[in-house]
Design a protein that fits this description.
With 223 residues, the chain is of the alpha/beta class. It is built from 10 helices and 8 strands. It comes from Nocardioides koreensis.
Length: 223
């Protein structure tokens, strides 16, 4: 029979990860870092957190072994320690979706009315391969640079209305963003449809695409 103190010590290690996940702000930071490395300043701005609060959350995640840091000049950049952390986030959200009854109403309240048609991953893979759709990435520039679907056109959502002329009109647009709980692609399809551009959204996004091992391109341009 195993030693009780040793067993308790083992379970405390597991619990440390669970405790780090037990905060909505920290889960959002993990969601952002699943897209690619970001500085503390960028994370605080996107997650709408104060710098001190953001730094404290990141320190908790680091102590739990979920994120790591690198320094570039005066800035500190955070990233997930491994892809399995993104998988943990995806599993956690899936469990909540399946077993917590308030999750689905909360999802619908955030993503808005069910007024956008989705393209599943198999069809999107075919479209990426065949080039018969305009695959549109509507995430912020740092996330696109860190990794995007092969051949994807990049127009951040907040620039989309002003850059409609860049979209070919002879093919349907398929917009994608961070993942299935990201509102950006939903909003992009609403904008495009309002301007007469045929558009659908990807049913999943960059998080699920990476976890499935699908090909990813990166922006290797200087700076």
């Amino acid at each position: 029979m195993g030693d009780r103190d040793a067993k308790n010590a083992l379970y405390r290690e597991f619990a440390a990860v669970g405790k780090a996940l037990g905060n909505p702000g920290r889960l959002e930071l993990l969601d952002l870092l699943a897209q690619g490395p970001r500085s503390v300043e960028e994370l605080a701005e996107v997650a709408e957190l104060g710098m001190s609060s953001c730094s404290a959350h990141l320190q908790t995640l680091r102590e739990a072994g979920l994120v790591e840091t690198r320094r570039a000049g005066k800035r500190v950049y955070y990233s997930l320690t491994d892809v399995d952390v993104a998988g943990l986030l995806d599993t956690l959200r899936g469990v909540a979706q399946r077993h917590r009854p308030h999750t689905e109403p909360a999802r619908r309240a955030y993503l808005g009315p069910d007024d956008t048609e989705a393209v599943d991953t198999d069809e999107l893979l075919r479209r990426v391969r065949d080039g018969d759709s305009v695959v549109l990435d509507v995430r912020p520039e740092p996330e696109y640079a860190a990794g995007h679907l092969p051949g994807a056109l990049h127009i951040p959502l907040d620039q989309l209305t002003d850059r409609l002329a860049e979209l070919p009109r002879d093919r349907e647009v398929v917009a994608y963003c961070r993942g299935q709980y990201c509102v950006l692609a939903h909003d992009a399809v609403r904008v495009l449809s309002a301007h007469g551009v045929p558009a659908r959204r990807a049913s999943h996004g960059m998080l699920e695409w990476r976890l499935a091992g699908h090909p990813v391109e990166r922006d290797l341009s200087p700076g």
